[in-house]
């Protein structure tokens, strides 16, 4: 296939954990341009317009976001520009050229009060600024009326970047005891699974066909299974090889009320992935298998 025939793929947020994995997984799938904040700052809406206009992509994968959940409480305007306004502008630019926009959203659009997994059209009611700005981003994309897929994911982990798994490996080797919240439930989801899942959706629908559905374009996309933050920490230390003579830190579960943070977080943010499976035949692997894969990549898996 000549360079003119291969799809032009624009990846934004290239230096984030998901952005790095998307670059790897989509590397052979087209002419890829991956821009970090230094080359496309989503806080500058003209830069967003220019990035799309100058590369002229058929597919945009937007992994850029203001993800500092606690800090967002004190920077709501900046978080809104990056998470809400910029995705709306991206969607308008994509529509102008008939491109497909793939965007990632969050479990934090829900308030956590439901018993059982949340489905896509359950009522949203974010508890924090981050969740509210991400929800506004979804709405801005959908109201632009172009071709878009919005994948809500959760508890993102990877062998690189800033995430809970890497923080646990660091703190678990330094300390004897870690007090971790045990009354918030979700599904840890690897960037590998999200990037592969995205690719599988596009393979199922085709870049040209995807985003044409009548169901709003919002899909949940998380790894299978669920756990609490303390359950996740325990699983990490059980699957990781010995770190030092005295082993990993002991995990003590505590209620969220004993770990106050600027941003409130939902108690149950487990998402149902049934819509994704029914529409595209795509399911992500179990969170604990993905966790073991990351530990292996980091060279710390047991056995
Ligand atoms: N992390 C999670 O647990 C989680 C959970 C649910 C949903 N999500 C969603 O999943 C997607 C990927 O998140 P992630 O985990 O890969 O986050 P991440 O590792 O924090 O990466 C986010 C990237 O966005 C970039 N960014 C921030 N502000 C920007 C700006 N003004 N202009 C351009 N780029 C900017 C960051 O750039 P710098 O490298 O320069 O800081 C970073 O590279 C996001 O949409 C996020 O909302 C994440």
UniProtKB/TrEMBL annotation:
A cellular component term, taken from the record's GO annotations: cytosol
Pathway field: Carbohydrate biosynthesis; dTDP-L-rhamnose biosynthesis
EC number assigned by the record: 1.1.1.133
A biological-process GO annotation: dTDP-rhamnose biosynthetic process
Pfam families: RmlD_sub_bind
Gene Ontology molecular-function annotations: dTDP-4-dehydrorhamnose reductase activity
Keywords: NADP, Oxidoreductase
SUPFAM superfamilies, alphabetized: NAD(P)-binding Rossmann-fold domains
Reaction equations catalysed: dTDP-beta-L-rhamnose + NADP(+) = dTDP-4-dehydro-beta-L-rhamnose + NADPH + H(+)
Residue span(s) of domain RmlD-like substrate binding: 8-297
Record-linked PANTHER family: DTDP-4-DEHYDRORHAMNOSE REDUCTASE, METHIONINE ADENOSYLTRANSFERASE 2 SUBUNIT BETA
Function in brief: Catalyzes the reduction of dTDP-6-deoxy-L-lyxo-4-hexulose to yield dTDP-L-rhamnose.
The family this protein is said to belong to: Belongs to the dTDP-4-dehydrorhamnose reductase family.
Protein name: dTDP-4-dehydrorhamnose reductase
Organism, as annotated: Silvibacterium dinghuense
Source taxonomy: Bacteria, Pseudomonadati, Acidobacteriota, Terriglobia, Terriglobales
